[in-house]
Amino acid sequence: MLEAAIGYPDRLHRLVPHPVVWAGHAINALEERWNHPELTAARRRLSGVAALLLVASCAALLGCLIDAWGRRNIWAALATVFVATIGLAQRSLYIHVAAVHTALQAGDLPAARKTVSHIVGRDTATLDEHGVAVAALESLAESFCDGIVAPAFWLFFTGLAGLFAYKIINTADSIIGHRDPRFLAFGWAAARTDDLANLIPARLSGALLALAAGGGWLIMLRDAKHHASPNAGWPEAALAGGLKIRLGGPTTYDGQSYPRPWFGDGAAPGTTELGRGLRIYLIACVLLWALAAAGALAWRL
After folding, report:
1. Contact in structure between 113 and 193 (CB atoms under 8 Å)
2. Which end of the chain is more exposed for a tag (fewer CB within 10 A), N or C?
3. Which residues pair with 262 in a beta bridge?
4. Rounded-to-integer distance, Cα 292 and Cα 204, Å
5. Burial 79-101 (b: 16+ CB within 10 A, else e)
6. 219 SS3 class
7. Cβ count near 279 (within 10 Å)
8. DSSP conformation letters of 64-127
9. pTM of this prediction?
10. What is the pLDDT averaged over residues 130-155?
11. Cα separation of 59 and 65, whole Å?
12. According to DSSP H, which parts of 180-229 are helical?
């Protein structure tokens, strides 16, 4: 709830960049140093494993130390609560997607394309209103898992150590967990570990979105498995079913077209559906708070 209220303020980010930025710099530095093209695929894969272990273990150790310090007194405990907010992204995700919705509402398609390009990797220059809404809703659904439910899940069960380690794994996957020749071997560990870390949170995310939408369960169970990722399809299919729209479909990256499966049976979404998706997202966040509170109470009992 605190993170939803304050997020990571822009003024603070200008003074002290978000720790994920630091993690990204560390991963990039190790990749440049250890991922040499002349090495065999096996050596590059082993180097990727070592890089992920090095950065994630340092982050987990830092989390353990802060957790231990946080048990000293109430003020230290409150400080750890503020530290934990940097691992979640409820506020920033809402702000970024709401900005796309605002541009569409104003009828400013160029601004909507530019805004959505900040949160998706696909080509956005030629997207129409429906294409922009699809991109924004897919990012909203997938990031609900990666940026909120999964970090909260690992924080709940393993404390700051698990939260920090998860953020490293997820960041590494976004930077090096690709299938192109440069990263296929070196990023293998990051991609596979991220898949494993999101296995339960992705399904939980889909359930929360379907519950918040008052539907979408059947579409989620039917279509989630069609996604190339073992996890991303769950929240995306749940949101598509809950909104009674269709997400997915072919898209382009760097000028090259890629086929993708469809999720849902409805029409392509527009500005109205994007607004409804944001409301569903807010309800799902509240449901996550309630689930965490109930879990904490059960843990104490």
Report:
1. no
2. C
3. 248
4. 12
5. ebeebbbbbbbbbbbbebbbbbb
6. helix
7. 11
8. HHHHHHHTS-HHHHHHHHHHHGGG--HHHHHHHHHHHHHHHHTT-HHHHHHHHTTT--S--TT-
9. 0.93
10. 97
11. 10
12. 188-197, 199-213, 217-223
pLDDT digits (tens, 9 = 90+) for 218-252: 999 999 999 999 999 999 999 999 999 999 999 99
Domain extents for the chain?
A: 2-300
Closest CA to 239 of 262, 216, 222: 216
Mean pLDDT throughout 159-187? 94
Dihedral angle sign, alpha carbons of residues 122, 127, 131, 133 = positive
How far CA 101 is from CA of 105, 268, 281, in Å, comes to 6, 15, 14
Q: Are 219 and 240 in contact (CB under 8 A)?
A: yes
pLDDT in tens, 87-111: 999 999 999 999 999 999 999 999 9
